[in-house]
Automatic annotation (TrEMBL):
This is chorismate mutase. GO terms for molecular function: chorismate mutase activity; transferase activity. Gene3D superfamilies: Aldolase class I (3.20.20.70), Chorismate mutase (1.20.59.10). It comes from Hyunsoonleella flava. InterPro entries: Aldolase_TIM, Chorismate_II_sf, Class-I_DAHP_synthase, CM_dom_sf, CM_II_prokaryot, DAHP1/KDSA. It holds the Pfam family DAHP_synth_1.
Length: 360
């Protein structure tokens, strides 16, 4: 896929003085619910009103959406509020119905992005459309798979394209519902700076009280907009209750977010500097998380050594690690002095952990 500037044109044509905002309920539940939320959002920064019509759930038996009936409710939203509408499509039949009901923005969900067959089916059904089409990252952290979906759509003569970063599933337990793995989104921006990228803090966090912080990080990383799930009664939502906010909370989030505006050379410099600092913050958090994981492994080693009455310090093993890390560091432009200092500190913390286990 070539780096085509027309992919950003649709976003520039909106003429926004703030990031693009896509908001609305995770699921369309009733006509009354859909319209009430829409009327509360119509005079805010929201540009597209979203609602899930077809809801692919991880396991059967959960609420899987109201189906095409919800599209008529979205038509009423447009008639009564003038807001543009958005929903997820997962196959050609969904596409046909969404286009028939004049949905303005369609997105392909994370579970669909993982399958080139599904993406191709959707691309064929959308061929030549002037609707905006956004692609969520696949559930697994696979950048080529994500870009491959965009390429399939672009090859079908769909020019109003963009991506949604909603985080990645992981087996390990973390504070996120889906780990953001910001470095993948950063790499995508580096390769295709003219491809609009929207952040979905609702699915990344899974918790409404974390949405602001993730949204701010996304804006600091020069994301173009946000998709935030919004409900009049979040606690009683039929799906993903914990991650939805009220319309008034959404308004407050948008007021509190610090949004950089590039108006002159100094602002451009500050924007670039803030972006690089945000990338450093992301990596620093990853370093701390990895060190925590390493120390858990050290605790396990300490328990084994206690069981077998083995000494904490194993000089041969330590020297092997040090030599290997010095060579690895050189490959990444890191000095031997720095590597030695860093790993000696890590080694000492590991010893402290093991001694606590053994002495405990």
């Amino acid at each position: 896929m070539e780096n085509k500037k027309e992919m950003r044109t649709w976003l520039d044509d909106l003429g926004l003085d703030h990031p693009l905002v896509i908001a609305g309920p995770c699921s369309a539940e009733t006509e009354e619910q859909v319209l009430k939320i829409a009327h509360e959002l119509k005079d805010t920064d929201v540009n597209y009103y979203r609602a899930g019509i077809w809801k692919p759930r991880t396991r059967p038996g959960n609420f899987e959406g109201v189906g095409h009936l919800g599209l008529k409710w979205l038509q009423k939203v447009k008639e009564e509020t003038g807001m543009k509408t958005a929903t997820e499509v997962a196959n050609a039949a969904h596409v046909k119905l969404a286009l028939e009901h004049d949905i303005d923005l369609l997105w392909i969900g994370a579970r669909s992005t993982v399958s080139p067959f599904i993406v191709q089916e959707i691309a064929d059904a959308l061929e030549g459309t002037d609707k905006i089409v956004l692609v969520k990252n696949p559930v697994n952290p696979d950048l080529p798979l994500w870009l491959g979906a965009i390429e399939r759509l672009y090859s079908s003569n769909i020019k109003k394209l963009g991506v949604i970063h909603r985080g990645f599933s992981t087996y390990e337990k973390t504070k996120y519902r889906n780990k953001p793995k910001w470095q993948l989104a950063i790499e995508l921006q580096r390769r295709f700076p003219d491809l609009p990228i929207i952040n979905d803090p609702s699915h990344i966090t899974g918790k409404r009280d974390m949405i602001f912080d993730v949204s701010q990080t996304a804006l600091d990383l020069n994301f173009d907009g946000l998709m935030i799930e919004t409900h009049i009664d979040p606690d009683n939502a039929w799906s993903d209750a914990a991650q939805q906010v009220t319309p008034s909370t959404l308004v407050q989030i948008m007021e509190d977010l610090k949004i950089r505006k590039e108006t002159d050379a100094e602002a451009e410099y500050n924007s670039a500097l803030d972006n690089l600092r945000a990338q450093i913050d992301v990596v620093d958090n990853q370093i701390i998380e990895l060190l925590g994981t390493r120390m858990k492994a050290s605790d396990g080693i300490g328990a084994l050594k206690k069981q077998k009455n083995v000494a904490v310090l194993q000089s041969k093993r330590w020297n092997e690690i040090l030599g290997r890390m010095v060579l690895e560091g050189q490959d990444h432009g890191l000095s031997e002095e720095f590597i030695l200092k860093m790993f000696k500190a890590i080694h000492q913390e590991s010893i402290n952990h093991q001694e606590k286990i053994i002495n405990g």
